[in-house]
Design a protein that fits this description.
Blueprint: E1 3-7, H1 14-20, E2 22-25, E3 28-31, E4 34-37, H2 44-54, E5 59-61, H3 65-77, E6 82-86, H4 94-104, E7 111-115, H5 121-135, H6 140-150, E8 154-155, E9 157-159, H7 164-168, H8 174-182, E10 185-192, E11 195-203, H9 206-216, H10 218-222, E12 229-233, H11 238-250, E13 257-261, H12 264-270, E14 275-280
Parallel strand pairs: 1-2, 1-6, 6-7, 12-13
Antiparallel strand pairs: 3-4, 3-5, 8-14, 9-10, 9-14, 10-11, 12-14
Helix pairs in contact: 2-12, 3-4, 5-6, 9-11
Length: about 290
């Protein structure tokens, strides 16, 4: 059976990793002169505390080739094939690291590295689909073909509580961050073609903004694939997460509403209280919208 592996930015919970038999290879987070492996050696809360104390954002770097080789080797030696997912190649060089690891093991024909063209549970949605196909006995080429067909239908977006972390990380200018914070603007960040962009801004009480954000996607949510939808957040209030879950449940569409916590890499760039609703478009949905 094909083994499915992902880098740590897929933001799947340990329960889901166990359920679908998925292994994780960590990206790295650099805070000052110390480096940590995502999910294993640092928590988002520790990242926020360091970032606020130093008025800067940690650096993040690709997974190491040593970690990739160590993760791949046992399955190759056991005669298995691997499908390995990475965060969008426009955001990290992890996809190249995984390919180099496959070549180092002389197993490029047995390890299919897939650039998710996404982040967070936008990757996780693809990982789960691949794991289901692997359990059904599909080959790595069959899995790759289906995932590439699926990628344009994956919808990943999130609302940011504060622009400060994006500013610190160089993902928005100081002027934009200052104006946004003064005016209490909260952008919706969307992922399209492997890159992030802001396509809408909200203003007002953050709890109301979160609900409006979800409702703005209602037309496509109603037409989404029913298997699952993710609520992924970087430390939102329980009552706010519960509100979004109740809204999604009230649509009567999804068989499973999964709540996951963003890992260190994603959290270090978006900051606390960011929340996203991530899903796969179904038939008849607007493929150009969210």
């Amino acid at each position: 059976m094909v083994k499915v592996i992902s880098d740590s930015t897929c933001d799947l919970s340990q329960e889901l990793l166990d359920r679908y038999d998925v292994d994780i290879i960590p990206l790295h987070i650099v805070m000052g002169d110390k480096e940590y492996r995502d999910r294993l050696e640092i928590t988002p809360e520790e990242i926020y505390a360091w970032s606020d104390a130093n008025n800067t954002t940690p650096k993040t770097s690709a997974a190491s080739i040593e970690d990739a080789i160590a993760a791949f080797r046992p399955y190759i030696e056991a005669g298995r094939e691997i499908v390995a997912f990475t965060i969008s190649g426009s955001m990290s060089t992890t996809v190249n690291v995984f390919k180099m690891a496959a070549e180092e093991l002389e197993a490029a024909d047995k390890i299919k590295v897939i650039d998710s063209a996404n982040l967070s549970t936008g990757i996780g949605l693809q990982v789960i689909e691949a794991a289901i196909m692997a359990k059904e006995g599909k080959s790595i080429r069959e899995i790759e073909e289906k995932i590439l067909e699926l990628q344009p239908k994956v919808r990943a977006s999130f609302v940011v509580d504060s622009l400060e972390y994006l500013r610190r990380g160089g993902r928005c200018s100081s002027v934009v961050a200052l104006a946004g914070n003064v005016l209490k603007l909260h952008p919706r960040i969307v992922v399209m073609d492997g890159a992030m962009s802001a396509d809408k801004k909200y203003r007002g009480k953050y709890r109301n903004i979160l609900l409006n954000y979800a409702k703005d996607m209602e037309d496509n949510l109603i037409k989404a694939r029913a298997d699952r939808v993710f609520i992924t957040h970087s430390g939102c209030k329980d009552e706010d997460v519960r509100m979004i879950k109740e809204y999604l449940d009230g649509l009567g569409v999804f068989k499973e509403i999964l709540v996951t916590r963003a890992g260190g890499v994603i959290s270090s760039h978006c900051g606390p209280s960011t929340l996203g609703v991530l899903y796969i478009l179904g038939e008849g949905a607007d493929v150009n919208g969210f």
